[in-house]
Design a protein that fits this description.
The complex is a heterodimer of chains A (304) and B (346).
Chain A: H1 2-29, E1 31-32, H2 40-63, H3 68-89, E2 93-94, H4 101-106, H5 109-135, H6 157-174, E3 178-185, H7 188-195, H8 197-213, E4 220-225, E5 228-234, H9 238-253, E6 257-258, E7 265-266, E8 270-276, H10 282-296
Antiparallel strand pairs in A: 1-2, 3-5, 3-8, 4-5, 6-7
Helix pairs in contact in A: 1-3, 2-3, 3-5, 7-8
Chain B: E1 8-10, E2 17-18, H1 22-32, H2 37-40, H3 48-53, E3 57-58, H4 60-74, H5 79-87, H6 94-100, H7 105-114, H8 116-119, E4 123-129, E5 133-140, H9 148-167, E6 174-176, H10 185-191, E7 196-197, E8 204-208, H11 222-238, E9 240-243, H12 244-254, H13 262-268, H14 273-282, H15 287-305, H16 310-317, H17 322-333
Parallel strand pairs in B: 1-9, 6-7
Antiparallel strand pairs in B: 2-3, 4-5, 5-8, 6-8
Domain GGDEF (chain A): 176-304
InterPro entries (chain A): Diguanylate_Cyclase, GGDEF_dom, Nucleotide_cyclase, Rev_trsase/Diguanyl_cyclase
Transmembrane segments (chain A): 40-60, 72-88
C-alpha cells in the first residue's frame, strides 16, 4: 500500500483535490437542499457508481506495474469517477437556475474519461499480445493464473492435466500424433541437502529456462512436481520426441550451473522418458509416462 | 539405559515439543516461500521471537495448528513432501544423531519408534516384519484428524528420503493408502515412487527385508551410544515415552478378548469414567472409536501379516462367530475380509 501511494500519489491526490474543489464551488454557488427534496434513488445510483469506479482505480493501481497503459486507464477512471461525483453532488446542493457551467463540470469529464479508457484498453490489448509471445511454450490453449506454479515461472500439474485433455482431443480429431517427454533431475535431493533449499530452487528455475530453449514454438512445458518436468509436443511422433529428449538430457548435462553463494560448479544429470499418446485419457497418459520414467531411472544414487 | 518401562503418557495439550526442532523445519519452509511468521503462527500461542531463544515448548495441539496454518498459507500440494524431506535426521541434537548414526535402516526405525516423543510426536510408527518384508504403519498419536493425510505424506517421505540418503540408493518401496487417489498424485510419484495403490484398507509402506540390514556409513559410533543415553534421560525426565492414545491402544490390544467397556478401561487407567471420557474428547475421539480402531488394526495384522483364517481371527478377537466378524470388519474398513488382498499386490 505504501509503495502504491508513493508511485501514484499524484493521481490519487489530483482526484481528491478535484473532488474537494467541486464541493467548494457548488457550496459557494448554491444552497443545500432540504432533506425531503433529496432523491435518494439518484444518490445511491450515482454515488454507488462513483464508489465502484474508485475501487476499480485502487485495484488497477495495486495490481499493475506503473507505465503508460496504467496511466491511461487510471486517468480515464479518475475523470469518469469525478464526473459521477459531481453528478451526485447536485442531489444535495441546489444551484441557481442561471448557472450553466455546472454542466461542464458534470458532463464534460465523462467523454474525456471514456476516451482515455478506450485508448488505455487499446494499448492493454497490444501489451497482452506482447506478453503472450513471451509466455509461449509455457501456456497454450487457455489461461488460468490460479494454476501457475508458485516457485517456477511455469504452469503446474493441474494446468498440465487440463491442457493435456484439450491437446488429446485435438490430436484425436486431427489424426495427428502427440508425444510427451518427462525430464527428471537425478539426485536433486542431494543438491538440496548440500547447498540448501534456496540453491535447489535456483537450479529448478535455471532448468526450466534451459528446457524452454530446447522446445519449439508449439510445445508446452510444465512442472509436474518437485524436480520433474513434462513437455507436451503436438504433431510429434515418438522417434522425433526421443531425439528431442536426448537433446534436453545432453543440454542439462553440459550446463555449467554455478552456485549462488560460492560459485561452485554443479554437475547436473537428468533422466528422460518419452511416450506417444495412444487412445487414452490424460490421467492414463501421465501414469504411463511416469512408469516409463521410473524404469529409466538409475537405481543406485550417483555417488559424489 | 532402558531400565523400567515408563508408565506416563503425553496428552495433546502437554507442552514438550521444542519449537526450534521439528516445528522450525516447517516454519523455515514457509519463511523461504515468503510467508510472514506472524500469519504463520496465528492462533498457535507462540511468537517467533520466543522460538529463536531456543526455550519455547509447544504441545501437539499447537503443532497441529501450525501445520494447519502452513498448509493454508502455502496452499501448494508439495508442502507435506518438502517438510518430510527435511524432517529426518534433522538437527534436533541427540535424537538426530541417533538416526544419522544408526547401524542400519531397521535400527533407525526402531529408534524412531522408541524416541517418538522426540522425533515423531504426532504419528507413531508401527513396524511389522513378515518373512520377506518390513511393513511400516503409522498410527495417529494425538488426534490429528484433518492433518492426518499431511502427517502421513510427510512421515512416509521422510523415511524414504532418510533411507535413500544414508544408503545412497533408491529402495523399492511399495505403498498402500487407505484413501482415494488425491488430485495431486504426481507429488506421490516424485517423492515416494510409482508403486502406489489407493483405496486400500490400511496405509502402509513395505520394503524387502534385505534392505533393512545394509550398513549405514556411520554405524557403531560411540557418539550414538551417548546420544541414546541422553535421549533416554530426557524421556525419564518427562516420565513418558508414548502418548495417551498409544497407551490406550496398547491396553486395548492386550485385553482385546476380554469384555471392554469405558468404565473398566477407565478403572485400569486409574481414573473416573467421566474424566477418562474428557481426556478422550480432548483428543477428538471417543471410546468406541478407539476400540474399533484397535480391533481393525489387529484384524488387518492377523489377516495380512500373519495370514490367519477367518476362524482364527474371530477367535483371537473374541468374536462368537464369523458372520459377526465379517459384519464388523465391513464397518471398519468398508470391505469384507475375502477381498482384502495381500499387502503387496492391490
Amino acid at each position: 500500500m505504501k509503495s502504491m501511494l508513493k508511485m501514484h500519489g499524484l493521481t490519487l491526490a489530483g482526484l481528491f483535490l478535484a473532488a474537494n474543489g467541486g464541493v467548494m464551488i457548488y457550496l459557494a454557488a448554491g444552497t443545500i437542499k432540504y432533506w425531503a427534496d433529496i432523491n435518494w434513488m439518484d444518490v445511491i445510483g450515482e454515488g454507488g457508481t462513483c464508489l465502484i469506479l474508485c475501487v476499480w482505480l485502487v485495484m488497477l493501481l495495486r495490481g499493475r506495474p506503473a507505465g503508460r497503459v496504467t496511466r491511461l486507464l487510471s486517468l480515464g477512471l479518475c475523470f469518469t469517477a469525478f464526473s459521477m461525483w459531481m453528478d451526485m453532488l447536485d442531489e444535495f446542493i441546489r444551484l441557481p437556475p442561471e448557472a450553466i457551467w455546472d454542466n461542464w463540470l458534470e458532463t464534460a469529464p465523462m467523454p474525456v474519461g471514456m476516451l482515455l479508457l478506450t485508448l488505455g484498453m487499446y494499448h492493454l490489448q497490444q501489451e497482452q499480445r506482447a506478453i503472450n509471445a513471451q509466455m509461449s511454450k509455457r501456456e497454450q490453449l487457455f489461461r488460468e493464473h490460479r494454476l501457475f506454479d508458485t516457485l517456477i515461472p511455469l504452469a503446474g500439474a493441474q494446468y498440465l492435466r487440463q491442457h493435456l485433455r484439450q491437446a488429446l482431443e485435438q490430436a484425436e480429431t486431427e489424426q495427428r500424433p502427440l508425444s510427451l517427454i518427462a525430464i527428471d533431475l537425478d539426485d536433486f535431493s542431494q543438491i538440496n541437502q548440500r547447498y540448501g533449499q534456496a540453491e535447489g530452487d535456483q537450479v529448478l528455475q535455471v532448468m526450466a529456462q534451459l528446457l524452454l530453449f530446447n522446445l519449439r514454438q508449439q510445445d508446452m512445458l510444465c512442472r509436474l512436481a518437485g524436480d520433474r518436468f513434462v513437455a507436451v509436443l503436438p504433431d510429434t511422433g515418438e522417434s522425433q520426441a526421443s531425439v528431442m529428449a536426448e537433446d534436453m538430457r545432453q543440454s542439462i548435462a553440459s550446463l555449467a550451473h554455478r552456485t549462488q553463494r560460492y560459485g561452485e560448479r554443479l554437475h547436473l544429470q537428468a533422466t528422460t522418458a518419452t511416450i506417444m499418446a495412444l487412445d487414452e485419457d490424460e490421467a492414463q497418459v501421465l501414469k504411463r509416462l511416469n512408469t516409463a520414467l521410473a524404469l529409466a531411472k538409475p537405481r543406485l544414487a550417483r555417488s559424489a | 539405559m532402558n531400565g523400567q518401562p515408563l508408565h506416563g503418557a503425553y496428552d495433546a495439550d502437554n507442552r514438550f515439543i521444542a519449537a526450534h526442532h521439528l516445528p522450525a523445519v516447517l516454519i523455515d519452509l514457509a519463511r523461504s516461500r515468503g510467508i510472514d511468521t506472524h500469519h504463520l503462527l496465528r492462533g498457535c500461542e507462540l511468537f517467533y521471537e520466543d522460538i529463536v531463544t531456543g526455550g519455547a515448548l509447544i504441545s501437539p495441539q499447537q503443532f497441529l495448528r501450525l501445520i494447519d496454518n502452513a498448509r493454508r498459507l502455502l496452499s501448494a500440494p508439495d508442502t507435506s513432501f518438502l517438510f518430510g524431506q527435511r524432517l529426518w535426521p534433522g538437527h534436533y541434537g541427540p535424537g538426530s544423531q541417533l538416526l544419522e548414526q544408526a547401524d542400519n535402516l531397521q535400527q533407525a526405525l526402531e529408534r524412531l519408534g522408541e524416541y517418538r516423543a522426540l522425533l515423531s510426536p504426532l504419528l507413531t510408527p508401527v513396524m511389522h516384519l513378515d518373512d520377506r518384508y518390513l511393513h511400516l504403519y503409522w498410527r495417529d498419536s494425538c488426534g490429528a484428524s484433518e492433518q492426518s493425510t499431511f502427517l502421513l505424506e510427510a512421515s512416509m517421505t521422510a523415511v524414504v528420503a532418510l533411507a535413500r540418503r544414508q544408503q545412497n540408493e533408491r529402495l523399492p518401496w511399495r505403498f498402500q493408502f487407505a484413501y482415494a487417489e488425491p488430485a495431486y498424485v504426481e507429488q506421490y510419484w516424485v517423492h515416494l515412487g510409482d508403486a502406489l495403490t489407493f483405496d486400500r484398507p490400511s496405509t502402509v509402506m513395505s520394503v524387502p527385508r534385505e534392505y533393512l540390514l545394509r550398513p549405514w556409513p556411520q554405524a557403531g559410533s560411540t557418539g550414538a551410544l551417548v546420544a541414546r543415553q541422553s535421549c533416554s534421560a530426557q524421556l525419564h525426565a518427562w516420565g513418558w515415552q508414548a502418548s495417551f492414545l498409544d497407551h490406550l491402544h496398547a491396553y486395548l490390544s492386550q485385553h482385546i478378548r476380554h469384555p471392554l467397556s469405558l468404565e473398566r478401561v477407565a478403572a485400569a487407567f486409574e481414573t473416573s469414567p467421566a474424566s477418562f471420557k474428557r481426556r478422550l474428547g480432548k483428543h477428538g475421539t471417543h471410546f468406541q472409536e478407539q476400540l474399533d480402531l484397535t480391533r481393525r488394526d489387529l484384524a488387518l495384522y492377523l489377516y495380512q501379516v500373519k495370514g490367519y483364517s477367518n476362524e482364527e481371527v474371530a477367535q483371537h478377537l473374541g468374536f462368537s462367530d464369523i458372520t459377526n466378524l465379517r459384519r464388523s470388519f465391513k464397518r471398519w474398513t468398508g470391505r469384507v475380509p475375502s477381498d482384502l488382498g495381500g499387502l503387496l499386490y492391490g
